[in-house]
Amino acid sequence: AECTLKESAAINQILGRRWHALSREEQAKYYELARKERQLHMQLYPGWSARDNYGKKKKRKRDKQPGETNDLSAPKKCRARFGLDQQNNWCGPCRCKYSKEVSGTVRA
User: Fold this and answer.
1) What DSSP state is assigned to residue 71?
2) The overall pTM is greater than 0.85
């Protein structure tokens, strides 16, 4: 379940109070369990280190939307469709971009 930052902080406070309310013997059970898990991880992944793996995430593959294509069948820009002599048919962004290119303000 997703929760907001404030809810998460409140949950952490409650858990902290419950942890400190446990006796040393009860806490020792969890420390022992953590130690066993750590040993198991070291056996399964002997060369693993948090430092080496920090910030490494697998890139998510994006599903292509039905309208997305990268091939030549993609619709052409207004300039290519209508040409320079029919600028009144261009969309606003193409008109603005072309006027900037002509005036020399666009840098490559």
Assistant:
1) S
2) no
